[in-house]
Amino acid sequence: MGKLGKNPSRNQRTTIFISLTSLIVFLIIVLLKSSFAAMDANVNSWSVSIHSDALTQIAKVIHYGFDTTSLFAISMVIAAYLFYKKYRSDALLLGVTILADVAIIEIVKMLVRFPRPLNGIVNESGFSFPSGHVTSTIVLFGLLTYFIWKHWKSADAKILSSLFFVVIVIVVGFDRIYLNVHWLSDVLGSLPLGVFVLAFSMLAFQHLRRLKSRTNTLMSQKI
Questions:
Q1: Which own/partner pairs from 126-130 qualify as long-range (CB within 8 Å, at least 24 positions apart)?
Q2: Contact 50/178 with Cβ under 8 angstroms?
Q3: For residue 134, which phi and psi values (nearest 5 degrees)?
Q4: How many whole angstroms separate alpha carbon 50 and alpha carbon 91?
Q5: pTM, whole model, 2 decimals?
Q6: How far is residue 81's CA from residue 215's CA, in Å, rounded to a whole number?
Q7: Mean pLDDT to the nearest integer, 179-191
Q8: What span, in angstroms and rounded, lies between the C-alpha atoms of 83 and 86?
Q9: How big is the chain by its Cα radius of gyration, in Å?
Q10: Residue 212 above 80 pLDDT?
C-alpha cells in the first residue's frame, strides 16, 4: 500500500485480483449458505456453553460500539477531520466508501433474507446475513490502515496498524457469534464482502483520479 504512487499498474492489478477473488468467495458462500446449517447450529450451541456474566458485558460493549450506525458516525467524524487537515481525497474515499458499505449490507440482507438465531443475548432486528458489524469494521479499519501505510513512514506503525486491523476484525466476528445474533456462516460471508467493498472502492477511486488527471492534462494542452 505504501508503494501506491511508485507502481500504479502493479497496485491496480493487485487490487483487481483482491476485489474479484473476494467477490467470488462471497458469492460461493451465499450459494452454499444452507449447506452450513449443521456447522452453524453446532457453533451456536458451543457459544452458549462459554457464556459468562463478565464476558457477556464485554461482548455487549463491543456490540454497541461496533454497530453499523456507530461505525458510520465515527467514519463521518474521521472524514470531516481528514478534510479539515487537507487530506481531502482520503476524506472523500472514506465518506463515499462507508456510505456504499451501508447500502450494500442492506441490499444483501434483503436479497438473501436469512433469519437470525432465536437465542440472541441482545435484541437484533432484520435479517442475519451478512453481519453489518463485521463488514463495516473491515471497511473502516481497512481504510484507516491504508491511510497509515500511505502517509506514515514508520515501519512499526504500519505493522502495528495491520495487526490491530486483523485482531479487531476477529474480535468483532467472535462477538457476533458469542452473542448468538449471527451464525458462523454470516461472519464468514461478511469477511470477503467487507474486503470486496474495501478493494473495489479503492480501485474505483484510483480510476477516477487517473481519469481526472488525464482530463486536466487534455484541458491544459488545449489551452
A1: 128/181, 128/182, 128/183, 128/186, 129/30, 129/33, 129/183, 129/185, 129/186, 129/189, 130/105, 130/186, 130/189, 130/190, 130/193
A2: yes
A3: -70, -45
A4: 41
A5: 0.89
A6: 29
A7: 98
A8: 5
A9: 19
A10: no
